[in-house]
Amino acid sequence: QGKFTLLRDTRTDGSFLVHHFLSFYLKAGCKVCFVALLQSFSHYNIVAQKLGVSLTAAKERGQLVFLEGLKSCLDLLFGEEEEQSGQPSPLQFMSESASNLKALFDFVRTSLTPTGSDSWKGPVLLVDDLSVLLSLGATPVAVLDFIHYCRVAVCSQLKGNIVVLVHSNEDSEDEENELVVSSLCHHSDLILWVEGLATGFCKDVHGQIKIIRRVSLELTAEQDHVQIYQYKIQDKNVTFFARGLSAAVL
């Protein structure tokens, strides 16, 4: 509880981790607020069904609060956004001159604050993918402020967890995105860094994952624990193995 997990991908797609955490927390009985900025609800629902979870059912029973970023953006841009219960759209910053994400934070806090009838185990904020907020016009400072306030509200006050996906590329000229990524790395309790293979495409090894446990955050003078595995994504699961020990090689 109270942990901030950063999912980072470079030269590959790390969205399989988002699907894992989404199904994992729903199966565990947690209340989940999913800020989905990258894909539609039907996309996440189809993948979740393969993993044995129905997002539609989770929404109906109040366990999942889903923000469909693609639809909200279009509604805002074309003026079709209807204010729900007098509240502004969570992505209101797109149509305002001030780039602050207060409306999005209010949406998260309201979604995860327990009510008297809630019996969920703990609140979870899941964001896919944070880099999209920069593309929509938010400043790096606004994005980092948003994450800071979410950490205070979700991790510290509600004793819940936050899982955030960001795309990064060390060779990229997108300085704003790299600033956000490096800042988040310093604050994360756990970093799952998915990278494409330096040698290029391989049928039996889809990439490698670096698991960094931030022990240094606990001020124990210990170095961070780093483990590196390679992986292969299958239809309903992912196989992990030590580097060079793929079944195809052995």
Automatic annotation (TrEMBL):
Keywords for the protein's UniProt record, in alphabetical order: Cytoplasm, Nucleus, tRNA processing
Pathway(s): tRNA modification; 5-methoxycarbonylmethyl-2-thiouridine-tRNA biosynthesis
Location, primary (coarse class): cytoplasm
GO cellular component, one term: cytoplasm
Name of a matching Pfam family: ELP6
InterPro entries noted in UniProt: ELP6, P-loop_NTPase
GO biological process terms, semicolon-separated: tRNA wobble uridine modification
Statement: the UniProt record of this protein carries the keyword Glycoprotein: no
Keyword Cytoplasm in record: yes
Superkingdom of the organism of origin: Eukaryota
Protein localization: Cytoplasm; Nucleus
Similarity section: Belongs to the ELP6 family.
Protein name: Elongator complex protein 6
